[in-house]
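Morning run. Coffee first, then this:
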Amino acid sequence: MIFVRVEAKKDTLIRDKYKIAGFPTVILMNSSGDEIDRIYGYAPAEEFVATIRDYLQGKNTLEDVTKRFEADPKDADLAFKLAEKYEGRQMYDEAGTYYQKVLELDPQDEKGHSDDALMSLAWLEIRKKDYTKAIDTFKYFLQKFPHSDMAQDAEVYIPYTYARAGDTTQALELYQKFLIAHPDSPDTDWVRDNISKLKGEGEGE
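And here it is:
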């Protein structure tokens, strides 16, 4: 195997050619340079090696998971895997379709993927710069999964999205409310840093 590392944050041509959705992304190719599949995001060493071995055997690739889902279209786990694979390829419409399918197949989150799917749907809207829809989706997340481990994440991403949309006033107000409601949150320092940045932008204006 030949290992090649590319600083895709700087090499935008490579990033665009291979539709890199985020970092890190590892693409496994055959000897002809054709993609077998990719790993999007971090993975522990053992999981990483096991995934590469599976890909080399044609297991759990996009093609393999697609065929398995076509044979069992009620499998929420396979729908979630497909959504993640499409998201990692910047195929956001396809990813959204399968994340939505997860919610339809497992509305009570019995498989443990539905809250992840809804959170991912919100982030897909941010990627597409539809900030209003992203905020609505985060709010819906809090209604549907108020006890999820990601509930606080949804709370803090709402002001973050307002800031992305250019609504500094609303972002600051909600960030402050978050600090009052969750003073011991692991996101506290991050929120305070964002508040400082937003206030700095306001002063600069």
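Residues 160 and 171 are 6 Å apart (CA to CA). Good start to the day.
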